[in-house]
Amino acid sequence: MNITRNNVDALNAIVTIELAKEDYQGNVDNVLSNYKKNANVPGFRKGAVPMSLIVKQYGKAVLFEEVNKILQEKLSNYLVEEKLDILGNPLPVANDINWDADVLKFDFELGLAPEFSLDLEGKNKIKKFKVVADDAMLDEQVEFIQKQYGKMISKEVVEETSEMVGTFANEEEGINNEVKIAVSDIRTKTNQKKFIGKKVGDQVTVSTKGLFEDDHKLMEVLAVDHDKVHGLEIDVVFTINEINETEKAELNQELFDKLFGEGVVTSVEQLKEKIKEDAEKQFASQADQKFLNDVYEHLLENTSFELPAAFLTKWLMDAGETPMTAEEAAAEYTKSEKGLRYQLVEGKVMSQYDLQLNFEEIKEYTTKLIKDQMAQFGQMDPEAKVVEDIVARVMTNQDEVRRISEQVMNEKVLALFNDKVKAEVKEVSYKDFVKEMYGE
Fold it and tell me: Record's superkingdom (predicted)?
């Protein structure tokens, strides 16, 4: 057997495998011998069928199958031994094979991953956001808590302070969604007056343009996707099903103890401090994810490398369950190209900066997750043996281990970006951060 490679260019190669008869004939003979032992052919006893008849009936099929097995094994081993980083899978070249020849020759096309390097420390326009819970947000959260733990009172007519349960509908756009909204959620006094004084069963027609402060609220109440909601200007009919008003809970020690445990919070100021602390922890996680995404986007835009586009398009034609035409494969490649580039950049971050995971890191992270979850249910100091048993069970679940591994690697990449990327730190409120996230 002989394997050679011809590098067509930096992104494409042809691997040629030559098999002599001694490389495969023994396997073929063994399979045909087993066929002979078990063959049931009329006119012959079991096991007494002439080998010539077995070869005539099964020889070619067995030869194809055994040669194919050897080709797959040898090609796979070759790629590992040569440390070839390929995209897609090798494609067999359609050559006329003389199966009676002493040497069989097979060619395979390879699409090679491009060579490139990343510059994390270069000039960029990346902002790293520090999201703060401002006074306006804290006041909103305190009011939300008061309403959440308050008493709901049914009303006959809609007032400025009312909450309504009802259905937004527009038959042409396929909108029919029941929601709960407060009159104060609705933007402009003109729109609010359309609801005030209405009763259960009444219908109010309003335009979606400028109905709420931002499109995300409109997206939520109409149950439409992010792309559709932008610029949406249609009339919707709101049918009132319920009218309620919340009698706010008092900000007293009973409420504080119910929220945080006895004596943990003893004043409105401490309540706001607690809300601020908890909120900003969540904001930090979201800001970190945006920072990660922004760095990757920067790397994609500023790292130039070619891809074996023709090879990948050809590979896509037969890669799925249903074969594609050349036109369909080209369209699919265009759609998936950015995702492929993202994966290559992501992999290069890990290889260029030698980011690796080991079993102990994954186990340690899993232990922390378990302890944090148990703490949420009041188990602040669980027995070590109990935690170890839970961790052991989790580590036997491959899907969970994969998910946790991704989280650990995510933290390593974040630490790398924080260290290497010279980003501008910008302090913003959560409302402004949302605008930054969605470009509004």
Answer: Bacteria
